[in-house]
Amino acid sequence: MAAAAVANIGLMDSAYFVGRGEILSWINATLQLSLGKVEEAASGAVQCQLLDMVHPGVVPMHKVNFDAKTEYDMIQNYKVLQDVFNKLRINKNIEVNRLVKGRPLDNLEFLQWLKRYCDAVNGGIMNENYNPAERRSKGCKERNHKGSNKSSKSLQANRLSCANSADGVPTTEKVCISTVTEDHYMEQIQQLSEKIADLKVSVDSTEKERDFYFSKLRDIEILCQRPELEHLPMTKGIRKILYAADAKDSSLSEANEIITRSPGVFSDEAECQATPKASYT
């Protein structure tokens, strides 16, 4: 199967029948890791490196955080993964809000799909020239180096601010205040990230419900378009409701009027009520 077509495989594809034991063995052998559970890959770092293996140079490994523990840090990894998907034109939806929760089934399904994709790219053959441990180490060093540069600049800015200030507050106290403020902001970011994840779950649920009812309405519309039914008053009343342009006002009364004033609609029922029952005595 071509790599481009893997994004559209259904849940009944053989890729989703690969057991978690086989998935874990594949990941551990490929990336030289020792994962014991699929949910240990919930941070998104493993997925980023698997793509780095099959597409060398595409994944910015210095942005991948293998030590991600909070949902905020995990989401940053999935942002990197989504950027890579966009570069490679992989039309695959990443259920970030479910994956970062560490749900075993969601993570297993995503890893099953990823294995199928990697096999489609490299034919199931591992890249012998790829050193996963070295790539992780190099990425970690680059990330730490950039982080230290930022910290150094921040420290220099704090020192300059302290030197230029004339309020008499000791430098150590200012550093403590700065640290507390940073922790406070990080806590707020974490809380907002959780709220965003909850909102995404709510939106997904609403979209599924919308699609469900839309498919029902579409089935009714197709049924009303059948030649032997489209001339019936009941069909006309249903179409009146379906095609109502104003969402505020109900079209039910107009539809009832169309059905009621149509000749012969209730004639059979009236005749049945007017005809006396035959007596068998």
Written description of the protein model:
The chain is mainly alpha-helical and 281 residues long. The chain is built from eleven helices and no strands. The mean pLDDT is 80. It has helices at 3-6, 20-31, 45-54, 71-88, 96-99, 104-122, 132-164, 171-224, 233-242, 252-260, 267-274. It is 64% helix and 0% strand. The chain is elongated. The longest helix has 54 residues, at 171-224.
Order of helices and strands: HHHHHHHHHHH
Instruction: Report the portion of residues in β strands.
Output: under 5%
Number of distinct helices? 11
Biggest sheet details: none
Distance between the termini: 79 Å
Question: What oligomeric state best describes the polypeptide chains here?
Answer: single chain
Summed over residues and divided by their number, the pLDDT gives a mean of 80
By secondary-structure content and strand pairing, the structural class works out as mainly alpha
Helix amount:
55-70%
Segments where pLDDT lies below 50 for 5+ residues?
none
Which outline best applies? elongated
Count of individual beta strands:
0
* Radius of gyration, in angstroms, nearest whole number: 31 Å
Give the SSE layout.
Blueprint: H1 3-6, H2 20-31, H3 45-54, H4 71-88, H5 96-99, H6 104-122, H7 132-164, H8 171-224, H9 233-242, H10 252-260, H11 267-274
Helix pairs in contact: 3-4, 3-6, 9-10
